[in-house]
Every structure is written in C-alpha cells, then in structure tokens.
Amino acid sequence: MLKNSRNKISSLRLKVQTFFIILANSLFLKPLMFLPFPIMNCYSCPLAVFSCPIGTLQYFIGIGTIPFYTAGVLGSVGSLFGRLSCGWACPFGLIQDLLYKIKIPFFKKRDIPERYGILKYIFLGIVLLAPIFMAIPLFCTICPVGTLEAGIPTILLLGLDINLFFWFKVSILIAIILMMFIFSRPFCKLFCPLGAILGLFNKISGLRLRVDDGCTKCGRCEKVCPMNIKVYERPNSSSCIRCLKCVEECKNISVERPLSKNKPDRVNDDI
C-alpha cells in the first residue's frame, strides 16, 4: 500500500523528473539512440541519448514505410502506463512545471479548459499527414523542443549563421515559453503530438485512476490538476498525465490495478 503524507508523491515526482532530464541528455549513453523513448527530448540535441518518437514516425511515414518498431514501442508503453511518461519523465514537461510556478507581475495565472485538448489531436493529424505530401518531418523543423534543446545549442557551439527561418522557430519557442508562465502545461494540453498518442491509451492502460462513491465533487482534484481535468467526472481522461496530484489531494481518488483483486492503492489513507 502507498501510504504517504501530503506532497510525498510530488516530491518523488520531481526527483524522478530530474533523473530523466539528466538521463535523456547523458552523452555517454549514445548507443541508446536507437530507442524511441516516449518523451519530448530532441534527438538532435548535442547531448541527447534517445531518439524522438515523433521525429521517427515522421521520417518513416515520409519515406513511405510503416514505422512498426516505433509504433510498437509507443503502443506498449501506452497500454501499460498511459501518459505516465508525460507526468514523470518528460524534460519539456518539467520545464513547463517549473516556469508555471514563477510569478511575474502582470502575468495572471489562467486555466485552459480541458475541452481545448482536442486541438492536440488536430495537430497530431497534421504532424502525421504532412510527411506524406511534403516528404519532410514538418513538425521537427518548427518543434519548440528541438529549437530549445538542439537548434540554439548547435548555433552557439558551432557559430553557425542565423537565418530568417531560425528566428521564426525561436519566435514559436518564445511564444510557448510565455504561455508557460500563464498556463499550466500549455504545450502538453494544446500541441504535443506524443501526448496525444499516449493519451489514447489512458482508459485501457494498466495504470488507471478510480473515484470512490464517497466523492462529493468538491472540485479539489480539478484545482490541483495541472491539466485542469474534472477528475471526479473523467478520471482517465486522455489529457491525464498520471502525475497523481489528485490522488495526493483526495482520499476518494486512488490508483486502480485492473488485474488485482485487492483494493486500489491509496496515497493518503492517513490524511
């Protein structure tokens, strides 16, 4: 049983996120570049370890080949954990979490209603269809993650000339970063194609959330949720990143283990 005091999970999650941001950029692990790890971390980054699953999907679609390997990895991870990697392992997710905590004068914190999450699926469709007609990984050319982790470092390290298109990419990155100060996880909610894919598995994954009959719909879960989900209505929404902040906050929400006959694990039975 998971019995911990309030904020215990958040503390653990921050440590795990920090571990993965270091792991994903550990140059000495270059042999792992063949593995499309389910996080947004550009493989063109000078220190990157894993390949980007979205970049890999676009490449193979662009050359007219079905990306069985990458699709299999994403399908396996999604079936087991849903969007867990978004909440616990993604470096870009950690950056969003940290920037949102910073209070800036005249920047009022606002919520993005969950219904706008449909935009990331529209964006996913464009990302996957564009290579068929353009024969290039379109998303990779403008990806803010790639600009931050690969484009800017490469320019600085090699002293390359900066063209107009690069400034266009930087402007996209700046816009996304500014949104991070106002909205919680805006890239995850509105644009991330990887999160859109993994979110499709949330309702059937091996890791799911369960709301007990004792729920009063007080809204505490929605208030702490970085994705602004009404957990009491849709505990396994495709937007859920499995951060478990709602489980940490409310004793009526628990981690469900579909194959277990025991009661679901709780995080705060002692609260």
Please provide a written account of the structure:
- The chain is mainly α.
- The protein folds into two domains: about 10-200, no CATH class; about 210-255, Alpha-Beta Plaits (2-Layer Sandwich), CATH 3.30.70.
- It is built from 13 helices and two strands, in the order αααααααααααβααβ.
- It has helices at about 10-25, 55-60, 70-80, 85-90, 90-100, 120-135, 140, 145-160, 165-180, 185-190, 195-200, 220-225, 245-250, and strands spanning about 210, 255.
- Strands 1-2 form a two-stranded antiparallel sheet.
- It is globular.
- The relative contact order is 0.17.
Task: Draw up the topology in text.
Blueprint: H1 8-23, H2 53-62, H3 68-81, H4 84-88, H5 91-101, H6 118-134, H7 138-142, H8 144-158, H9 164-182, H10 186-190, H11 193-199, E1 208-211, H12 220-224, H13 245-249, E2 253-256
Low-confidence stretches: 1-5, 263-271
User: What distance separates the N and C termini?
Assistant: 14 Å
| Total beta strands | 2
Class inferred from helices and paired strands: mainly alpha
Summed up, the domain count is 2
Please summarize the sheet with the most strands. 2 strands, antiparallel
**Beta-strand level of the residues, as a percent range?**
under 5%
By DSSP (H or I, 4+ residues per run), the number of helices equals 13
Overall geometry:
globular
Keywords for this entry:
271 residues, mainly alpha, Alpha-Beta Plaits, two-stranded antiparallel ribbon, 13 helices, globular, disordered N terminus, disordered C terminus
Provide a compact summary of the structure.
This protein is mostly helical and 271 residues long.
